[in-house]
């Protein structure tokens, strides 16, 4: 999978894309991720990527020209399945959306910054708009990093233990059961006996019961979706 991220703040993406599973997936060639600094695409002699809004609102607006230049160049090189814009008024990101994005070959993710982007970009280039939740961040970079992380960890081979991504919370509309590691007793706090029993079927049943119990207690809305 190839992901091209367009931003005016490339440094905000540096560590999320160069740590942990995303880093390893890139090293293994499972995910090719390129971050493009929109300042490199501006024709403005001062490398300006934003300007004052028409109509006199407060704040600056990202200009159309650098975004057009970058997207047009990328699209001339290959086909893209989606041009995604990260925005708080987009469709709320969730696990099913991560699953379906992970099946695509090439995607562009455009990060907004400042007050917003020239609306014509959304009308003429963007095919999908994603929000990571009902709150406003400084820009689309951290949301883009969330989407990339959630998607890349699903690529086959990205996680050592193939089962691991499938047993995540939300993957079956259930929250994950608790996990424990050594020591089996700490300060008198014990790991549930069943996990030490070696009895696979009983452990599987315990995990399912716990997942159901936690989902019922913490996120009953997930269970309602099933009914
Ligand atoms: N840009 C700013 N806030 C955002 C959010 N919540 N989701 C996606 N993009 C954003």
Q: Summary?
A:
The chain is of the alpha/beta class and 227 residues long. It has helices at residues 14-17, 20-27, 64-77, 95-101, 119-124, 141-152, 162-166, 193-196, 200-218, 220-226; strands at 2-7, 32-37, 50-51, 61-62, 82-92, 106-111, 116-117, 128-131, 185-186, 189-190.
Could you explain the architecture of this structure?
By secondary structure, the protein is of the alpha/beta class. It has two domains: 2-152, SPOUT methyltransferase, trefoil knot domain (Alpha/beta knot), CATH 3.40.1280.10; 167-226, tRNA(m1g37)methyltransferase, domain 2 (Trp Operon Repressor, Chain A). It is built from ten helices and ten strands. It has a five-stranded parallel beta sheet. Strand 9 and strand 10 (189-190) form a beta hairpin. Helix 9 (200-218) crosses helix 10. The longest helix has 19 residues, at 200-218. The radius of gyration is 22 Å and the shape is elongated. The two termini are 35 Å apart. The mean pLDDT is 95. The chain binds adenine (ADE).
Order of helices and strands: EHHEEEHEHEEHEHHEEHHH
The CATH architecture of the largest domain: 3-Layer(aba) Sandwich
Name the shape in a single word: elongated
Strand content: 15-25%
The end-to-end distance, rounded to whole angstroms, is 35 Å
- Gyration radius from CA atoms, angstroms: 22 Å
The CATH C-level class name of the largest domain = Alpha Beta
> What are the segments in which pLDDT stays under 50 over at least 5 consecutive residues?
none
Could you say which small molecules are bound to this protein? adenine
Number of strands: 10
Q: Give the structural class.
A: alpha/beta
Range of helix content = 25-40%
Largest sheet: 5 strands, parallel
The domain tally reads 2
Average pLDDT, rounded to a whole number, is 95
User: Could you state the CATH homologous superfamily of the largest domain?
Assistant: SPOUT methyltransferase, trefoil knot domain
* CATH fold label of the largest domain: Alpha/beta knot
Lateral strand order in the biggest sheet: 2-1-6-5-8
Count of discrete alpha- or pi-helical segments spanning 4 or more residues = 10
